[in-house]
Amino acid sequence: MIRRINGVYYVEGGNTKIAEGFAHFFKKLGGRILNNTEVKQIFTKEKKAKGVLLQNEEIIEGEKVIVNGDLLSSYERLLPEEERPSYKDRKIASYEPSVSVFVMMVALKGRRKNFVHHQVYFPENYQREFNGIFVHKKFPEDPTIYISNSSYSNDRIAPGDNLFILVNAPAITFITKVESENYKEKIYNKLLAYGVDIRKDKVAEKTITPCDIEAKFFARRGAL
Ligand SMILES: Cc1cc2nc3c(=O)[nH]c(=O)nc-3n(C[C@H](O)[C@H](O)[C@H](O)COP(=O)(O)OP(=O)(O)OC[C@H]3O[C@@H](n4cnc5c(N)ncnc54)[C@H](O)[C@@H]3O)c2cc1C
Q1: In principle, which of 10, 54, 151, 163 could form an S-S bond with 58, CB 3.0–4.6 Å?
Q2: Residues 206/105, Cβ–Cβ less than 8 Å
Q3: 103 lines ligand 1 (CB under 6 A)
């Protein structure tokens, strides 16, 4: 069920319910879904994609192959260069990926008055943030901070506030654990200056960097 709150639609149970809905009907129509299964290669016959080779060496043949992952990294990873004359490695490398994100998912004990469902803390200089990200490929010193707290609209989803804290980040291939920890603390300090103390009452936390996004979804340099 989708609810509309002040002009924004909220999917009851979270966005993954949309994927679950598609999966449900796909299976009902006779489709087979292989979860946690990586495609290692797309193979071709007479210049047409005709199937996939899975990481476990299983081959699945088909009339057509539809790729829903990031296009540039899928081409690079799944099709040998000679099979894609109009998308050589050099051309792929010449594309600049879009923005990535640095995310902290935080569970708080209890509910605070600070939060509604969506809130955005804007920096003094929005232009400088995006110059830093795209020109200097740096994590912003003074970032826009978006916080989603879906338990505000649906208190059955979590026993306390369930914060999804997102800041814009450059698309990059490497960040150390220490850099990631330091940046997280910087964001918490920024929020503290806005009167929002995240460290107090925090019961669980997970940080996601552009590199995690690249590793999990094969999104080029973690770009969205
Ligand atoms: C933290 C975060 C916040 C975001 N916030 C917003 C937002 O507020 N609004 C908005 O509009 N967009 C947002 N986005 C962007 C949005 O999520 C993406 O644009 C969208 O998910 C793209 O959908 P897709 O189905 O094309 O690709 P994906 O959702 O990336 O799905 C592709 C799937 O293919 C899988 N895959 C890739 N390669 C292989 C392989 N070789 N073998 C098997 N599986 C493979 C991946 O694991 C992935 O599950 C956000 C993204 C992130 C990461």
Answers
A1: 54
A2: yes
A3: yes
